[in-house]
Each structure stands twice: as C-alpha cells, then as structure tokens.
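From the shared-data thread, chain only:
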Amino acid sequence: MIFSEFQNVLSSFRLNRYLTAVSGNTKKAMTLYRLNLRLSQELFTIVSCFEIALRNKIDYHYINLKGNDWLKESSDPGGMFSSRNCGKTPNIILQGLRKLTVYSHHKLISEMEFGFWRYLFAPHQFRAGGQTLLAIFPAKPRSTPMMNYNHNYVFRNLEKINNLRNRIAHHEPICFLPGHNDKDITYASERYNLIIQFFQWMQVDESALLYGLDHVNDICNKIDKL
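Structure, as tokens:
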C-alpha cells in the first residue's frame, strides 16, 4: 500500500506523529506504525497473562486465609472490605455479583478488572486484608533505606502496567514517550521489565509461560534501529 492510501485509511492526524518521528520518511512511517502495532499485540498478551497470574496468586492467598467465598463475603456488612475507607471496592464486587446469573466464586473472580486487583495493595484495602498480601511475592527483595519494596511500591507500579494496558486497549501508540513525538521505546520497555520483575517475584517461570509469545525486545530493537 502506498502512503497516501495508508494515510487515507488511518487519517493524517494519526500518522503525523509517526512521520515526525522518522523525519518525514513515508516508508519508515508506515513501518513504525506496523511495528507499534506488533509491540502493542505482544505487550497486551503479556499483560493479560500477568493479570491472570496476579489475580490467581491473590485469590489463592485469600482462599487460604478467608475461605472459598472470600471475595463475595468481603463486601458483606462487616466483611473485609465493607469499611468506608475501602472506597469503591465493595461496590465493584457487588456490581460483579449482579452480572452473574448463577453465582460461583470463579465467575466472580473473572468479573474483576485489573484495577480491582491493583487496589488491593492500596493502603486501606491492604490493611483491611490483614497486611499479608505481599506474601504472594515470595522472591521479593528485602527493602533497604534507599528502596522500600512495600505495598505502596507494588500499588504504584501496578498502576504503570494498568496504564499501559489501557493505552493499548484505546489504540494509543506506545513507541513514543507520552506527550512527545520522538520514537522512544523507554515507556514500553520499562513497563515490560516491571511485568517480568513481578513474575519473578511471584516465582512464575515467565520464560516458559510466555514461550512463543514474547518478542518484545526484538521489536523494540527494530524500532530503535528504524
């Protein structure tokens, strides 16, 4: 496809950023656009695998502490997250329950989105859960005076991964630094490395899990060399 046809389909507004990044070279602009799509596909798959692994680790942890219906019961009056301090957390659980025609714990777990699991590390939810949730990261390094690997660290960095997921879902480019027109894979690479770090902290063999799915570094290298 020639660039004018490519631009007609995708819009000049969308492609101008790619053109600027490659100094107006139309062939490179199309290549960069396609590489961004490939990078987005790869990372969305990896984020999806991470989200499932994270929620399952959290689920197993609270099943062992609270029982098989911990999530449903946590929104009940007097339940783990029923406190006003826990904000929207109980309402999100109740909304999930209302969507189910037949209740099962696993179906309710599946109704919870990435942001819900992230917020279980927020200060109030973390305390309400007994301040034990960091146990899902048995390989987490010890905190130091320079770096505190506590629930706030996890909460902040899960937000970065969640924002990456949302950018991809809304077809926003990830081959630029946000707010800039220079091609730069730093944003994507940093979040990819966070995911790998959290997999390792959970003692998940990410290489085996993502076998045949993870070509992120190869694509980032191609973007760098373009």
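The CA atoms of residues 208 and 214 lie 10 Å apart.
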